[in-house]
Write a structure and sequence with these properties.
Strand order of the largest sheet: 1-2-3
Helix content: 10-25%
Radius of gyration: 19 Å
Order of helices and strands: EHEEHEHEEHEE
CATH class: Alpha Beta
Distance between the termini: 21 Å
Length: 175
């Protein structure tokens, strides 16, 4: 929809499995339904990283001149998704699997693999930006950028009822 002149040959989706949280115990169920829905699409592969959660002490914001205070928080970090995306981008470019790669991210951690794919391997790389402002670090090193607008997201939604080899399932009210 956003690149009508291009032929889409493959979609690689990089994510990590989430865990239930006290304020959102159904989050893993919704994510599994979303991954199940993605698997109904031809040419889509899912590549999983993982989450790490651990308790850490973090400083609170304090007024200048006040004594610093700390609080224990649960810090959750997604691990592996960016590295997996970068690895596949580089490998697929090296293997000649695309003429143009489109990355749906605004993460400047992807700068170096994007630069290598363009400068060393001679491939084009574009960004579909899911955030309001584009990464200033990425802009000079990509061939194009397109903002993902709300209307495009609405038009690209899964239908409310889906079917796969295991049967029929419904899209949750929120994904």
């Amino acid at each position: 929809m956003l690149l009508p002149k291009n032929t889409l040959t493959e979609i690689k989706y990089f994510t990590a499995l989430v865990s239930a949280r006290p304020n959102d115990p159904d989050q893993p169920v919704r994510q599994q339904l979303y991954l199940r829905a993605l698997r109904t699409l031809p040419g889509v592969s899912i590549h999983l990283g993982h989450f790490l959660s651990h308790e850490v002490m973090m400083p609170l914001v304090v007024t200048p001149g006040q004594r610093q205070q700390y609080v224990r928080v649960i810090k959750t970090e997604e691990k592996g998704s960016d590295v997996n995306l970068a690895t596949h981008l580089l490998h697929d470019a090296h293997m000649g699997r695309f003429d143009v790669a489109v990355v749906v991210s605004n993460d400047s951690d992807l700068l170096e693999p994007i630069k290598i794919v363009r400068e060393q391997l001679g491939k084009k790389v574009g960004i579909l930006n899911p955030q309001k402002n584009p990464s200033r670090a990425l802009l000079p090193h990509i061939d194009f950028i397109k903002q993902i607008r709300a209307g495009a997201l609405v038009a690209a939604q899964f239908s409310s009822v889906l079917k796969d080899a295991h049967g029929t399932f419904k899209k949750p009210t929120s994904w």
